[in-house]
Amino acid sequence: MIICNPRRNHLLKEGSKSDKVEASKLAELLRAGLVKAVYHGAPSVRPLKELAHAYDQLTQDRVRVMSRLKALYRARAIPCAGTTPYSHARRNEWLEQLTEPAQRQRAAWLYAELDAISGLRREAHNRMLGEARPPPAFKRLTGVPGLGPIRVAQLIAAVSSPHRFRTKRQFWAYCGLAVVMKSSADYQLVEGRVVRKPRAMQTRGLNEQFNHRLKAVFKSAVLEALKDETFKRYYERLRERGLRAELARVQVARKLAAVTLAVWKREAAYDSERVMQRAA
Question: Whole-model pTM?
């Protein structure tokens, strides 16, 4: 049995749709070798995957409730910048600024929901880290600049095994950091001969199909990694070459992903000198 990626089965979108028709199209794709299998990972990582999903969802729910609280105050023209509206010590002061009892009750329910979700999020955080710490890779990966315990736990949950990626380029594509190049009209007819144009028109961008959790991990890790002297010098060197700041950060994220994969696959500690030698 092959669990296939539905986003790659474009043939299913064409023509009539029914169970019989789609089964026939899937059989045709399988016979032609056009079915892209989905990696499910080892059963030993499934508990960590479930805990990482729970932590991500509780984090999103917490941010959603916090946004609703601030929206409630902003709608009444009450300035609420910063994190003070969420503090327990000054919560009564914020509730007193709401003049109507129904508004205060609504805010009180939101505060109760925030407290409940925050407690569940802390529990999910502790359980996720407790599940991620036993593997030897956890300690090695936390030595990479920008990768803290939470990011490493999410990384292990999403990747499962680094050996599923033959090179760093496959890993970049999975993280949403692979450069996609498209070109057309690359050849022209010169004196009866087909000649390639010296400069083909190309548009560049990053791939659209990727693991969203991994991309968020490396995008946030770049900001922390730039505080490290090794990655800071690499970033400054890219800027000196004329690369824009946002593109330079993408390059640093690709470098960080390549270093992470190498440390994980080789089961070796992070070496900053080796990173700088390869970046030179």
Answer: 0.81
